[in-house]
Amino acid sequence: MQEERLQILKMIEAGTVSADQGSKLLEALDTEDGGKTAGAAGQWLRIRVEDVKRGKSKVNLNVPLGLLDLAMKFIPKQAMADLGNGQQPIDVAEIVRAIKSGARGKIVEVEQEEEGLRIEITVH
């Protein structure tokens, strides 16, 4: 849990999340740490966004599933909507509905070639 706390504090410092959002994330970690369930049966949402052109991570976020709506704000929605290459655009709201309906495992894996992004969303 210490690694997750540090990651949240770095996100607050970088302005990736507001202090209020960071506080909610830290509270959720404290709830999980105390043996209580944070979110759906203690499950976690993992969001990874990688800049494949540079080989660097842009977003590396693990949050309790109970904070799903907050976590989804970190997905580059324009990249999801503009997949191109004849692929169907992905609706972030549909991803949220699927997870809330019980979808587990790897939910989304998308590579957006023009933007050089790879997006992966997993529930574990």
What's the arrangement of secondary structure elements?
Elements: H1 2-14, H2 19-33, E1 44-51, E2 56-64, H3 68-71, H4 77-81, H5 92-100, E3 105-112, E4 117-123
Antiparallel strand pairs: 1-2, 1-4, 3-4
Low-confidence stretches: 34-39
Roughly how many Å is the radius of gyration? 15 Å
What is the distance, rounded to the nearest whole angstrom, between the alpha carbons of the first and last residues? 16 Å
- The strand line-up of the biggest sheet is 2-1-4-3
Helix content percent band: 25-40%
Number of separate strands: 4
The tally of domains stands at 1
Mean pLDDT: 76
For the largest beta-sheet, the strand count, sense and barrel status come to: 4 strands, antiparallel
N-to-C SSE string, H for helix and E for strand: HHEEHHHEE
Q: Quick one: overall form?
A: globular
Structural class: alpha+beta
DSSP strand (E) fraction? 25-35%
Number of separate helices = 5
How is this structure best summarized?
By secondary structure, the protein is of the alpha+beta class.
